[in-house]
Write a structure and sequence with these properties.
Length: about 400
């Protein structure tokens, strides 16, 4: 029940990694890498899943690394805008703070609606009010780490594209859990990870970088106007660029400018299989099965006296939110008067061999949320079933009842 943290690895992923390690053991690492060509295979499968070209995919060691490589290739200067919402992931938010301090970029925290959905109208108002010479990046976390709300990425992307802003989508909790088409959501960059919903190896991630937004090298420097925000990657080597003359280099024309020479081929072999499995299972089927199990979990948790679900505000109503749905992330906490901490519940579940995660106090731009208690996060996927949901609910009921009896 921890797909949002680290899913169990399927046999075909495990076997692909072992097979590559055997190749390395018998042939040597370089020969094995050339024979397997796992990096290119993983790029191709990631492109199939996201609906883009393989040359728009860069492989990285994590979703956070992929996101950072995109963000730090933005050539901020004083007067540029960083637009995000209070729901932004903490790892991204601190990068915004750094950029606003170092480059004097203007950081604008847009409001959330009372129902937990990002306020798209507020984004439109800011984009319309910006000076014509201003440059902006719009950043959105598609699904928060502790929330079940799937934010309206397509609506955000359409506005960003209309007003010439760069759209950076954190799809870490989306890829592998729900269908995602990077063309349909109009993002310029999107990141994903292997270890969560995809059931791939830890230490793998990938970046989608839209070809049209990448500036190209010319003999006179980058081919870009002063109004374009995307620049060179912050780190390069002789794979991300070509060393053309003693004092000159040329950027890779595609997303490989965000890669470095060293890579883990065995992990890429596993990632390739994980991506292929997700495609075979059909992301739409995965989303439907996982969301169905999440509904059962919420229903069961609601029947336990002293437990409260908290993965969406009470005001959220999926029926009246056109195109905005809930996913398979379920978070809950015990009522404060019971004295049961989320840490206690997590540890008690672990003793019963039930894997869950802890969502610590929200590190967001809302100061009042910093003092909130941690919550327990459940995240079922297609490989779980109803009997496992029943077992989890029964275990939580027994943990709460046992704690009450001991007081």
């Amino acid at each position: 029940m921890n797909a949002a943290g680290a899913s169990p690895m399927p046999d075909q992923v495990h076997q692909a990694m072992l097979a590559h390690f055997e190749l390395e053991r018998h042939m040597g690492a370089y020969a094995a890498e050339a024979l397997a060509n796992a990096r290119e295979g993983a790029r191709l499968e990631a492109a199939r899943l996201l609906g883009c070209d393989a040359n728009e995919i860069a492989l990285t060691e994590s979703a956070q690394s992929a996101w950072a490589r995109a963000f730090y290739s933005l050539s901020f200067k004083e007067g540029d805008w960083i637009l995000c919402w209070a729901s932004e992931y903490a790892g991204n938010a601190v990068a915004f703070l750094q950029a606003s301090t170092q480059h004097k970029a203007r950081l604008e925290i847009l409001p959330m609606r009372p129902d937990g959905v990002v306020d798209v109208y507020a984004l439109e108002c800011v984009l319309k009010s910006m000076p014509k010479t201003s440059r902006a990046v719009v950043a959105l976390t598609h699904i928060q780490t502790n929330s079940s709300i799937v934010q309206p990425a397509a609506a955000v992307g359409a506005l960003a594209r209309k007003h010439g802003a760069v759209f950076l989508l954190d799809a870490c909790q989306s890829v592998g859990q729900i269908p995602i088409d990077v063309r349909a959501v109009s993002c310029d960059f999107a990141c994903g990870t292997g270890r969560k919903w995809l059931r791939g190896p830890r230490g793998t991630g990938f970046l989608y970088a839209r070809s049209a937004v990448l500036p190209q090298s010319t003999p006179h420097g980058l081919q870009r106007s002063e109004l374009e925000l995307v620049g060179e990657p912050s780190m390069i080597d002789h794979v991300s660029v070509s060393w053309t003359q003693r004092s000159a280099y040329k950027l890779s024309p595609n997303a490989r400018r965000y890669e470095m020479w060293e890579s883990p081929p065995a992990l890429h072999a596993g990632l390739k299989e994980a991506l292929a499995l997700c495609i075979r299972m059909d992301p739409q089927h995965i989303a439907q099965k996982a969301s169905y199990l999440a509904v059962l979990l919420r229903r069961g948790l609601a029947s336990i006296d002293g437990i409260r679900c908290c993965d969406a505000p009470e005001q959220f109503n999926e029926a009246i939110n056109d195109g905005i749905s809930r996913c398979a992330i379920v978070t809950f906490e015990a009522f404060s008067n019971l004295g049961i901490t989320s840490e206690f519940v997590r540890d008690a579940l672990a003793e019963r061999r039930i894997a869950v995660s802890l969502s610590p106090p929200s590190h967001t731009f809302n100061d009042e949320e910093w003092c909130l208690p941690s919550t327990v996060r459940l995240s079922p996927s297609y490989y779980n079933d109803e009997s496992e949901v029943d077992a989890v609910i029964q275990a939580i009921q027994e943990i709460v009842s046992s704690f009450k009896a001991s007081q």
